[in-house]
């Protein structure tokens, strides 16, 4: 039964954690794609920016959280979301809007967003340096160990405090987004514009407002994703291109322009990653006795080493582009 | 109708040049300024340093030509130049480094070959399993069989490979090279890069152009991860050096002269590529490519096989990147997989192309050399400015500057490159030497 | 050119309109006058500038010369969302619904600028188009062509326009649906909405038209009541297929 605990820790929990982060990132990418019709390559650095804002605020006021028993970083999150949203709107005004006004092809917007991602990277690393830093400045990371209710189960299920916050915040964010898109006038207008921008304009919907709202949401979500990732491990300023691939893969798997698809895609990619690096030998070893004698299992039965983890989202991306380019949920933008 | 009397160089007159040639004032001024800049670098930094800079700039010019045909000719954006460059560098290393007897003298090569054969056999088996439906197996069952078979065989082969490679690593260090002339590696590097480009292009070119950018960005990181972690093949982070040159090395002729000879080799390669591209651009093939870029729908209606043409151009660009990467790797005389950075090997090339003039070969070469000079010179400049800022900060505010100022100063260059990309796209989308659009005929 | 005191102010008054995409003109001096209680129909051969005129009225392309007045106010070259605020509704020929939004949400989008009216107008639109009631929770993309046209017209009506512009509302519909759509158009007009539409099915459309505009090469060729145009042998010979 220790093997089961190991499996839950390394696949179920780890997969849900990565899946949540990818999902929140992918929602932002897919929303931007559906409103502005281009792949936003600066998204991963917006996530980093959000996390960096949390880091700065937490370092500035490290004791705030202790008074109410919550990590300071979480209290700073809404403020960081606001700052990241402002940054996103500002970037759009300064860099993307002029390109849109020129009526450039989407791929030029993509290159523009690569320029933006470099600028963000440069700025963040200029101020933060390139090393990793913990978001738990003055707080302590609680670790919970739950024993499995089986006999002979000695290895506990391990879940950390930030992981619990991560699940709660992901759930809240997804529900809030769902309500926004389906209940609010602005959210419906956003879906309308994603469906048919010309008709949205002909209905009197102010497309500039929708664009701004999209950036606010995408920026806020990026701050959440970046902060949750940094809470779970540490704040690292150089993850950018390693995050982009899984997030885009998630958005495309779910069908580009499809927020719920992006959530599903995020978990597909997250679990695929953890399953691929999981050493299956651990699960098969207890049954070693029942195998025929000629069969000895190698000690390492992982599909890919952790150092090749980035192959997994790429493989998923290629597979989906070959077999079903519209994604699992029939995206709008191909 | 060409007008030979109006042109300077009739040999270069494309057949479809209908406009009369104007005096190339802009080109002359820009290249004149470039020459002055090069001379200034020579005067300031000395001949050995400056010649090295020129060789590297020339290698980058090849990369930039590869990108300019993808982006400028065909509107395909490759965000993973770095991966193709690294492949070229890897091949240059693999083919030119001396043979490692500690590896070839044992039974390890046989074992490695055996695993590769198993791999091929496993691939054939899985491919065969996907065709089972022709024997009457239901399609769903066939898919299940194929997937299960693929998973099991993959795990078997990868475990065997892990065994062999760890043995190679512990007994022989790494497989070593083939001891062949470097240019063999350059050519194979180009071919390998072209092969990877074919795979990516085949998957993505029928889809939105964004997908190609995503996929190339991904493959570049994968290639780097592979080269970095395959210690048995590349020595990974331990790096391989020196890589032999095809021309006499610095030990024989001194830095300046040997680098100058290497420079002449690169110059010849560029001249050949330039000439061939020029011919292709004005040939019916080039016109077709541009017609597809400028109006996909109507050229599809004219019955042009768009995806095949796009694939050709994409693969061609990747081949040039592999070739340039090989020449750059050999020149540096060091193979360090960690040294391949998106900033230095993808975005720098991108800036060269969009600043010089996408689709204009001359402009691209100008952009490559000019941007590389700025890039090289910006390193000491960034450090200097940073130190100035630190001194100012300490003096005025008593600011306690972080100790890793040097690495941070270099991040300022990331910022500048990013800014350059966005500004050029906005204010000079056609570059300094815009492509001269002619009728597509 | 002010209207005589005897006749009321026209709803739409287009005078000598030149315009097109960018600086290239497709319209070379079109005149149109439509009163609030009228159905106006624009007919003409392909490339005559029918849809172009409609788009020019709705601010979707440039008017380079001449003027367009709505209730006496100049409106040419105003952006579409301001025209919606001033009481104009536009139903494009293609892509005229939001396919992933439900029918009800499609209609709500029509009243985007007047959210307080949604409830009242929804009832009114369902009255005009009863088939939409039971489909109200279905995505509009799943509806048939005729029902989709109803959603599109309903969406435009939600803003309580005084002038409704329809671009070939019956294109691609079966004759049965065509008659139903024309029937609804009359009803909407009777409820006090001026209508200007472009039609390929010229005969049937002119039959319900108070005013017909025959365009050719970006200019008016004939302008009269629908009935008079149908009766005119010249019009019949050149534009109505004999």
UniProtKB/TrEMBL annotation, chain A:
Its main location: membrane. The chain crosses the membrane at residues 12-35, 47-68, 74-95, 107-127, 164-181, 210-233, 239-256, 263-282, 302-323. CDD domains: TM_PBP1_LivH_like. It comes from the Bacteria. Keywords: Amino-acid transport, Cell inner membrane, Cell membrane, Membrane, Transmembrane, Transmembrane helix, Transport. The keyword Transmembrane helix applies. It is a multi-pass membrane protein. It is found in: Cell inner membrane. Belongs to the binding-protein-dependent transport system permease family. LivHM subfamily. PANTHER family: BRANCHED-CHAIN AMINO ACID TRANSPORT SYSTEM PERMEASE PROTEIN LIVH (PTHR11795), HIGH-AFFINITY BRANCHED-CHAIN AMINO ACID TRANSPORT SYSTEM PERMEASE PROTEIN LIVH (PTHR11795:SF371). This is Branched-chain amino acid ABC transporter permease. The lineage of its organism: Bacteria, Pseudomonadati, Pseudomonadota, Gammaproteobacteria, Oceanospirillales.
From TrEMBL, chain B:
Its main location: membrane. It is found in: Cell inner membrane. Pfam families: BPD_transp_2. It is a multi-pass membrane protein. The chain crosses the membrane at residues 28-48, 54-74, 81-100, 112-129, 141-161, 183-204, 211-227, 260-281, 313-335, 347-374, 381-399, 411-428. Keywords: Cell membrane, Membrane, Transmembrane, Transmembrane helix. InterPro entries: ABC_transp_permease, LivM-like. The keyword Acetylation does not apply. This is Branched-chain amino acid ABC transporter permease. It comes from Vreelandella lutescens.
UniProtKB/TrEMBL annotation, chain C:
PANTHER family: HIGH-AFFINITY BRANCHED-CHAIN AMINO ACID TRANSPORT ATP-BINDING PROTEIN LIVF (PTHR43820). Keywords: Amino-acid transport, ATP-binding, Nucleotide-binding, Transport. Pfam families: ABC_tran. Belongs to the ABC transporter superfamily. The lineage of its organism: Bacteria, Pseudomonadati, Pseudomonadota, Gammaproteobacteria, Oceanospirillales. SUPFAM superfamilies: P-loop containing nucleoside triphosphate hydrolases. CDD domains: ABC_TM1139_LivF_branched (cd03224). It comes from Vreelandella lutescens. GO terms for molecular function: ATP binding. Residues 12-242 form the ABC transporter domain. This is ABC transporter ATP-binding protein. It comes from the Bacteria. The keyword Transcription does not apply. The keyword Membrane does not apply.
């Amino acid at each position: 039964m220790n093997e089961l605990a190991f499996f839950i820790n390394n696949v179920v929990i780890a997969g849900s954690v990565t899946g949540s982060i990818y999902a929140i990132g992918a929602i932002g990418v897919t929303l931007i794609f559906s409103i502005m019709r281009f792949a936003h390559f600066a998204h991963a650095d917006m996530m980093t920016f959000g996390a960096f804002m949390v880091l700065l605020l937490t370092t500035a006021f490290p004791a705030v959280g202790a008074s109410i028993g919550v990590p300071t970083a979480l209290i700073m999150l809404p403020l960081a979301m606001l700052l990241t949203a402002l940054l996103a709107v500002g970037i759009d005004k300064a860099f993307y809007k002029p390109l849109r006004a020129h009526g450039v092809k989407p791929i030029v917007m993509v290159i523009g967003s690569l320029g933006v991602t470099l600028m963000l990277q440069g700025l963040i690393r200029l101020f933060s340096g390139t090393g990793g830093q913990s978001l738990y400045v003055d707080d302590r990371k609680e670790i919970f160990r739950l024993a499995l209710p089986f006999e002979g189960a000695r290895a506990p299920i391990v879940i950390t405090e930030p992981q619990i916050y991560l699940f709660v915040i992901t759930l809240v964010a997804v529900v809030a987004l769902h309500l926004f898109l389906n209940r609010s006038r602005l959210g419906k207008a956003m879906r309308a514009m994603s469906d048919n921008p010309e008709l949205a304009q002909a209905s009197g919907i102010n497309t500039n407002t929708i664009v701004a709202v999209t950036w606010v949401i995408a920026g806020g979500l990026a701050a959440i994703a970046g902060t949750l990732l940094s809470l779970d491990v540490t704040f690292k300023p150089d993850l950018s291109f390693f995050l982009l691939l899984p997030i885009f893969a998630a958005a495309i798997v779910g069908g580009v322009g499809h927020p719920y698809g992006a959530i599903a895609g995020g978990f597909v990619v997250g679990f695929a990653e953890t399953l691929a690096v999981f050493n299956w030998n651990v699960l098969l070893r207890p049954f070693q006795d029942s195998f025929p004698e000629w069969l000895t299992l190698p000690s390492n039965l992982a599909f890919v080493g952790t150092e090749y983890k980035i192959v997994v989202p790429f493989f998923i991306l290629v597979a989906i582009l070959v077999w079903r380019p519209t994604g699992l949920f029939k995206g709008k933008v191909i | 109708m060409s007008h030979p009397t109006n042109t300077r160089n009739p040999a270069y007159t494309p057949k479809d040049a209908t406009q009369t040639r104007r005096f190339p004032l802009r080109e002359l001024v820009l290249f004149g300024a470039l020459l002055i800049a090069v001379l200034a670098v020579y005067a300031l930094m000395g001949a050995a340093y400056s010649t090295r800079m020129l060789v590297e700039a020339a290698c980058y010019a090849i990369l930039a030509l590869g990108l300019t045909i993808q982006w400028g000719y065909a509107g395909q954006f490759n965000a993973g130049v770095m991966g193709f460059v690294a492949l070229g560098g890897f091949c240059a290393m693999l083919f030119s480094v001396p043979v490692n007897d500690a590896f070839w003298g044992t039974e390890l090569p046989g074992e490695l070959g055996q695993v590769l054969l198993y791999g091929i056999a496993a691939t054939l088996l899985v491919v065969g399993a996907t065709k089972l439906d022709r024997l009457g197996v239901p399609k769903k069952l066939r898919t299940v069989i194929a997937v299960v078979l693929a998973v099991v065989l993959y795990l078997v082969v990868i475990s065997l490979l892990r065994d062999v490679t760890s043995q190679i690593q512990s007994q022989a260090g790494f497989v070593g090279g083939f001891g062949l002339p470097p240019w063999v590696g350059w050519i194979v590097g180009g071919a390998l890069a072209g092969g990877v480009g074919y795979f990516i292009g085949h998957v993505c070119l029928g889809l939105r152009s964004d997908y190609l950018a995503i996929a190339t960005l991904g493959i570049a990181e994968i290639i780097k991860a592979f080269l970095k972690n395959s210690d048995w093949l590349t020595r990974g982070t331990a790096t391989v050096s020196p890589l032999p040159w095809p021309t006499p090395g610095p030990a024989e002729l001194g830095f300046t002269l040997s680098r100058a000879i290497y420079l002449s080799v690169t110059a010849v390669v560029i001249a050949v590529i330039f000439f061939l591209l020029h011919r292709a651009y004005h040939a019916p093939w080039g016109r077709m490519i541009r017609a597809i870029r400028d109006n996909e729908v109507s050229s599809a209606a004219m019955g042009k096989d768009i995806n095949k043409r796009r694939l050709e151009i994409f693969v061609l660009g990747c081949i040039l990147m592999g070739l340039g990467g090989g020449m750059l790797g050999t020149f540096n005389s060091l193979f360090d997989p960690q040294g391949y950075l998106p900033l230095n090997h993808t975005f720098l090339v991108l800036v060269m192309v969009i600043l010089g003039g996408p689709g204009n070969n001359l402009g691209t070469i100008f952009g490559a050399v000019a941007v590389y000079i700025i890039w090289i010179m910006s390193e000491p400049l960034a450090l200097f400015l940073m130190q100035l800022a630190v001194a100012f900060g300490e003096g005025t505010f008593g600011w306690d500057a972080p100790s890793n100022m040097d690495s941070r100063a270099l991040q300022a260059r990331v910022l500048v490159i990013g800014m350059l990309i966005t500004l050029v796209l906005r204010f000079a989308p056609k570059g300094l030497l815009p492509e001269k659009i002619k009728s597509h005929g | 050119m002010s209207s005589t005191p005897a006749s009321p102010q026209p709803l739409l008054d287009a005078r000598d309109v030149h315009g097109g995409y960018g600086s290239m003109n497709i319209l070379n001096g079109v005149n149109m006058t439509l009163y609030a209680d009228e159905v106006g129909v624009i007919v003409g051969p392909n490339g005559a500038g029918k849809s172009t005129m409609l788009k020019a009225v709705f601010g979707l392309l440039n008017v380079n010369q001449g003027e367009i007045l709505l209730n006496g106010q100049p409106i040419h070259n105003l952006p579409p969302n301001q025209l919606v605020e001033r009481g104009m509704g536009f139903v494009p020929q293609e892509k005229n619904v939001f396919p992933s939004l439900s029918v009800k949400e499609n209609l709500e989008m029509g009243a985007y600028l007047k959210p307080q009216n949604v409830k009242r107008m929804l009832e009114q639109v369902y009255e005009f188009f009863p088939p939409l009631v039971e489909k109200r929770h279905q995505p509009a993309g799943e509806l048939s062509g005729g029902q989709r046209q109803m959603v599109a017209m309903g969406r435009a009506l939600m803003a309580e326009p005084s002038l409704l512009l329809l671009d070939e509302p019956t294109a691609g519909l079966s004759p049965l649906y065509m008659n139903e759509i024309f029937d609804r158009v009359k009803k909407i007009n009777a409820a006090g909405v001026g209508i200007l539409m472009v039609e390929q099915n010229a005969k049937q459309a002119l039959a319900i038209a108070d005013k017909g505009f025959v365009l050719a090469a970006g200019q008016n060729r004939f302008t009269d009541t629908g009935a008079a145009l149908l009766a005119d042998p010249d019009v019949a010979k050149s534009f109505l297929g004999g």
